[in-house]
Amino acid sequence: MLDFKPVTIEDKEVIQKFFDKVAFRNCDFSFSNIFCWQNSYNTSFAVEGDFLFFYFKTHDHWNYLFPVGDGDLKKAIEQLTLDAQSRQIPLRIFAVTQEMFDLIEECMPGEFIYKKTRSWSEYIYSSKDLISLVGKKYQPKRNHINKFKRSYTWEYIPITQEIIPDCLKLYRRWCAENGGCNSEQSLVEECTATHRAFEHFEKLGLTGGALRINGEILAYSYGHPLTKDTFGVHAEKSLYEIDGGFVMINQQFAERNCADYLYINREEDLGLESLRKAKLSYYPTILLEKGSLRRKSELQPN
Question: Is the pLDDT assigned to residue 279 strictly greater than 50?
Fold first, then answer.
């Protein structure tokens, strides 16, 4: 059995060293994401030899992430298999991209079934597109931005310790707009993740920016690099009463914080139709498909 332990802020350096060795663009391999949502998924990790392993819970199922390392992948998968057997659970590997499946298929051909899940797909955009919004397809976005600039006195400022209380004040107002952050489990979990992010903002190495509109912080966004060429946006908030607030913070954050990256990953739509529509309206360059792996030998015959 692998020696898993809960992820803490003190584990950042150890875990990040493994992430730096790979170039996975999906948000699941971001220490800041893993740490901030640790309570929601009971995420734990283990380092064994040349690999980093993660173990976590979704709904009623315990799962693993794809092993991260530069050693013998077949051996690492066999370690997960033995760990799952010792826990008397099926081996499930989640958040698997086609690239990851191909790596497993290469060393263990025909042993796994790969099932993609559309709501897990991540939206990855050209940073130039989100900054410039050039072309007919982005005309509605430019219209929103122009109206915003005419309607408000505003400035874009970096998120620092000094303005984090104002960002949390905005978050509470956003919660109120959405029926309260205790109204459903997903909002409760997001609230916890948001407070963890702001509490450990500097230690996590997060980068953020906010819009001060008519003297108040009324929009913000923050995230962390995923790879050398891809920046991951973890959160974006604006009050709906601010006309064009979301479009403006999206464009300004891309321009001020992501210009040095080729791509911007704006993560999943969680199967929410309104969120899917909003993310598609920015025309992703890559729709990064993800799914789960199960051993053929563990599946019941039809």
Answer: yes
